[in-house]
Every structure is written in C-alpha cells, then in structure tokens.
C-alpha cells in the first residue's frame, strides 16, 4: 500500500487523559515537530563513547546529517573539546555549509543521542518558549548518563541556549519516547513510559498527570504493541510511529510473515487503525516498510526504521540504509508531507549504536534564544565543568 489508509475500529480503545485540561494561555503546549524551528541540536560523537573503531564512520554520518539540516536552518553542534570543534567546523565549511548556519559549543557528554538528553521545549503564555530539562538515566540505567544528564543545564548556565526560560524537572522523560501533534495529543508506548526503570510513579494516571502538568497534554494515545530487534530504549515511539500532521500518523510495518517483527507491527497497525482524532475521526495512516535486516558484527539485528525521520524548516530528513525500501519510504513521506523536500541521510553507520537520525537530533523551536543567532555570526562557546 502506498500513501494513506483509513483507520477502522478493531475494538481497541485508545486511552485518553482522565481529566482533560482546557487550552489557555496559562498552560504549556508541546509543539509539533513540524512547527518552525530556530535550530537543530547535535551532540558530536567522540572517542570516549561507544563507537570504537567505527568512530570515523559515525563522524562522517554526523557531517552528512549536519550539512543536510544546515541547508534549511541553523545547527547547534555540541563538541567534546575545542580541537573537535575546529576540525568539524573546517570539514563542514569544506562541504559547503555556510558558517552562518553553524553554532558550535563545547561540553562533556556520554553519548550522541540529543533526542533524549536535549531540552524538551514547550510554549507558555504569549507563545514564549520554555526549555524543560527532564532527568535522563541512560534508558533505565543501562548506560552511563551523568554527563548527558547535566548537558542541558550547562548549555543554559553558559548562555548558549535558553537563559531565563530554563526549568529543571526532577522526573525522567526522553524526547524519543513521546511524539506530539502540537494540539494536546501525545503518542507514546506503555513499555517505555510505564517502565519502573524510569520513574517510581509508573501508574498510567500518575504518568498522565505529569504529562498534563509539564507538557500540557490533554490526550494520550498509549501504544501497547510494536517493538524492534536491537532497540534498547524499551520501545521508544520515534522508532515505531510518528505524527506527520494532526490527522496523519506514519508507522513502521513488516509484510514478511517469517520476520519476528511481523506480528508485533501488525498489532501496532491495528492499534493505530482503532485510534481516533480529537474530533472522533480515524487517522490517516502512512505505512513505512522496514528495510532488509541489518546486523552488527556479532550477528545481532539492529533497529533500522524509517519512522526515525526528522522535520526541519521546509524539509524532512529521512534515514536510508542502501536498501530498495528506501525509495518506498521516501515516496510515501513525500506524499504525506507536501511542500517539503525529502532529504535522504545515509544512516547505516549510525544504526550500529541502536539509533538513527531522529535519535541523534533535538529541535529547538522558533523563539528559543541561541547564542550566535542574533547577529547571524558563527559562535563558539566553551561550557566548563559545573
């Protein structure tokens, strides 16, 4: 199937917020990712991370990702040290990236996944942007995350982003675990948000209360099905299903009955077919096929998916894997996102560590103050140890 499919009711009722909050200027609003952005944030790979002998390939992938995004908007690049900043700056300039589209800063980090350690931005009264710094514990304490958990605070304390709009939230939430339609509806998975390895208050009502208070969410579409081999995030929704607009959801599908993903992704599709918009209409669904299986050196299957695409101003950056399904996924996203360029970003080397282009980025919506953008000049800042 190419393009949209109308949802139909399978008797699966999506769970809504138990106490809807009426929208007004006093409540936060979590923007949709297709809304205007000030910049896209990247945290650069480094030798202290898990890339090992694949570090050079990972950096090349990040260079392609940064160059693709910089065609449409500024890119904030967080490097581990000044030598890396200088080298990356020169390589991007050589690739034709305008210096006015690059903002460099330096800060320690554990890993590259800015989607989960970067700020989650909401809008407050008058449309004011507020940066929320949720706790990050390395996906349930699987991996070291102390530097990543401090990264957003360091960037704001040094004036790189945010300033007075910053707020620390002592509750664990990863950007890859949620997806917003910008109008109060959230897509997420029970496997991640209700997992006791994140927060102690893991009851559905308690989690919904946090989402309502912190993000202004009035309706949650809880997904109970769907997983990908090699995903160590407990089922981040950004690997499975994403809003394309307020009436459309793109999601991963598997049509091979012999593939272990076949049954769980079929169940996911049925959940999405049963879901309804705020007006009670079925969502239009865009099916994104999985690429052929990709494995690491030890034979473990990796979670390659096209659902991990990224919105930037005027375009969609789509991870591709040198697979025939690349063209199918890009064509379907082009149909679903009229007026936007579809830009392919090779992600074979990125998926080695279990993530793709959405995992490696965090949007900073329009209105977020970013040092260096006011004058359009290239900025370099050093964020010192706290």
From TrEMBL:
Gene3D superfamilies assigned: L-arginine/glycine Amidinotransferase, Chain A
Keyword Hydrolase: yes
GO MF, one annotated term: agmatine deiminase activity
Superkingdom, taxonomy of origin: Bacteria
Claim: Hydrolase is one of the keywords in the record: yes
UniProt KW keywords: Hydrolase
Listed EC numbers: 3.5.3.12
Enzyme class of the recorded protein, top EC level: hydrolase
A GO BP annotation: putrescine biosynthetic process
Alphabetical list of PANTHER family matching this protein: AGMATINE DEIMINASE-RELATED
Protein name (Swiss-Prot/TrEMBL): Agmatine deiminase
Species of the source: Halorhodospira halophila (strain DSM 244 / SL1)
């Amino acid at each position: 199937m190419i393009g949209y499919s109308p949802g139909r009711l399978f008797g699966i009722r999506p769970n809504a917020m138990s106490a809807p909050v009426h929208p007004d200027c006093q409540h936060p609003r979590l923007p949709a990712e297709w809304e205007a952005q000030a910049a896209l944030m990247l945290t650069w790979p480094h030798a202290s991370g898990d890339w090992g002998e694949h570090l050079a390939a990972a950096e090349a992938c990040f260079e392609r990702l940064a160059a693709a995004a910089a065609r449409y908007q500024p890119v904030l690049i967080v490097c581990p040290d000044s030598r890396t900043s200088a080298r990356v700056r020169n390589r991007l300039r050589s690739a034709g990236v305008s210096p006015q589209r690059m903002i460099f800063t330096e800060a320690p980090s554990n890993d590259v996944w800015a989607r989960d350690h970067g700020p989650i931005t909401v809008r407050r009264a008058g449309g004011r942007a507020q940066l929320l710094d949720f706790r990050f514990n390395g996906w349930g304490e699987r991996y070291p995350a102390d530097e990543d958990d401090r990264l957003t605070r360091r960037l704001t304390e040094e004036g790189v982003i945010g300033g007075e709009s910053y707020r620390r939230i002592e509750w664990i939430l990863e950007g890859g675990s949620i997806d917003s339609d910008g109008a109060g509806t959230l897509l997420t998975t029970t496997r991640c948000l209700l997992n006791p390895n994140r927060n102690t208050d893991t009851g559905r009502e308690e989690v919904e209360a946090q989402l309502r208070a912190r993000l202004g969410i009035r309706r949650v579409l809880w997904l109970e099905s769907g997983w990908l081999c090699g995903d160590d995030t407990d089922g981040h929704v950004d690997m499975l299903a994403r809003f394309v607009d307020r009436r459309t959801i793109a999601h991963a599908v598997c049509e091979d009955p012999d593939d272990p993903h076949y049954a769980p992704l079929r169940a996911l599709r049925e959940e999405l077919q049963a879901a309804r918009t705020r007006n009670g209409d079925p969502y239009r669904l865009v099916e994104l096929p999985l690429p052929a299986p990709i494995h690491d050196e030890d034979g473990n299957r990796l979670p390659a998916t096209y659902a991990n695409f990224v919105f930037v101003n005027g375009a969609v950056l789509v991870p591709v894997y040198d697979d025939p399904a690349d063209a199918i996924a890009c064509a379907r996203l082009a149909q679903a996102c009229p007026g936007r360029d579809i830009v392919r970003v090779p992600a074979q080397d990125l998926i080695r560590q279990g993530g793709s282009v959405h995992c490696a980025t965090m949007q900073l919506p329009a209105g977020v103050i970013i040092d260096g953008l006011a004058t359009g000049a290239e900025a370099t800042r050093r964020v010192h140890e706290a």
